[in-house]
Arginine:ornithine antiporter (Geobacillus subterraneus), 474 residues
Amino acid sequence: MGKQQKLGVWVLTALVVGNMVGSGIFMLPRSLAEAASPLGVMLAWLLTGTGVLMTALVFGNLAIRKPNLNGGPQIYAKELFPKGSNWSILSGFMSSWGYWVGNFAGNVAIITTFASYLSTFFPVLTSDHTVAMIGSFPLKLGNLLTFLVCTALLWGMHAIILRGVESAGKLNFVATAAKVLGFFLFIVIALFAFDKAVIGPLNAPRYDGDGQAISLLGQIKNAALATLWAFIGVESAMVFAARARKQADVKRATIAGLLIALAIYIGISFLVMGVLPQEKLIQSEKPLVDAIVAIVGPIGGYVLAGLGLISLLGSTLGWILLSAEVPYQAAKQGMFLPSFLKENDRRAPSFSLTLSNALAQLFIFSTISHSMAAAFDFVIYIATLAYLVPYLIASVFQLKLVITGETYQGERSRLTDGVVAAVASVYSVWVVIAGTADIKTFLFGLTLLASGLIFYPQVRKAAQHERQRQKRSA
C-alpha cells in the first residue's frame, strides 16, 4: 500500500469522532433522562469521562509501544500468555470474537436510529397500520418499512466500502466534519432557549419497575452504562493503526477525537434536558429534533433531522468499516478464521465485510417486532458489554508492560503509565460488574460470546500451521 493511500491524522480523528458521535448523540438524552436525575447524569458523565480518558491514553500508548499489534484492543489478549500456547490462541480468538460481535450488533443501533430520524420526513415509518398477520403476530406497516430502509442502508454502505477502505475513510471525514459543525450550531441555539425550570430539581427521584425509589448511586450506575455507549468507538484509530501513516498519529487522533466527542455529548445532553420537559423527553424517539422544534419550530426540526441523517450515514460507514477490519486484522495475526483474510482487488476485506453485514442483517429483524427506541436500547447493552472485555484486556496488558519493564528503558513515564492503566482497569471491571447485573442481558451476551467456541478448533489448527511454516522458513 503506497504512502499516499495511508490514513492521516485528520482522517483517523474523523473515524474516532464519527464512530463515537453516532446513534448515541440522537437517542442518549432520552436514555439518560429515564435512567437518572440531572445530578445523577452529571456525576455519570464525570465518572465515565474519566474512565474512558484513561482507557484512551492506554490505547494511544500501546499503539506506539507495540506498533506490530494491530486491529483493536482485543488483540492484546494473546500477549497475556506465552507466545504460541493454546491459552494465547484461545484468549486472542475469544476476545476478537466478542469484540466483533459487539461491532456488528452496534451497527444495528446506528442504522435503526437513521430510520428513526428519516421518519421526520416520512411519518409512514412510524405507522401502526397492520399490513399482515403472521400467526398471532401483527406486522405493522411502519416496522416493515423500517426494516426495508435499514436493510438498504446496510448493503448500500457495503457496496461503498468494497470500492476501497481509504476512499471510504475520506467520505467518512466529510460526513464527520459536517455533523461536528452542525452539532456546535445546535449547542449555540439551545443555549439561548435553555431553561433551568424545565430541568426541575437536580436530585429529582427516579423509580424502578416496582415503583421503588432508586438511590443516587444506583442512578449513577444506570446512567454510566448508558453514557459508556457514547464512548464506544474511541479505539477506532487504533483498529486502523496498520493503515496509519505514523503510529504517533493514532494516539493524537484518539485523544483529539475523545475530547471533541465529549464536548459535543455533554453540551447536547444537558441542553436538551433544559429544553424538553422530562416526561416528553423520556417518551421521545428523536429527542434532538423535538428539542429544536420546541425552540425554532418545524423548520428547525427538518434541518436537524437532515443533519442527523448525514451524521448517521457517516457513522454507519465508519462502524461497518470497523466491523470488517477487526476480524481481518486478527486473522492476519493468527487469531481468527483464515477465511477472513480474503480481500478484493481494492484491498478491502471482502469476506469479513460480507459476513459481518449478513450477521448484522439478522439483528435488523428486531425492528420488525420492536419500536426503534426499544431496538436501540436492546442492542446497545449487548454491544457495550461485548466491548468492555477488550478494553479491560488492553489496560491489563499495559500494566504487564509497566511491571515487566518491557518497552521501557528507565523512562519516567513508566509510573504515570502504570497509574493510568490501573485506573482504566478498575473502571473496566466496575462497568463489567454493573453491566452484567441484569441476568437476561448477561446470559444473552454470554451466549453470543460462547458461540465462538464452535470455530476455535479451526483457528488453533490454522495458528499451528502458521507456526510450522515460520519454523521451516527460519
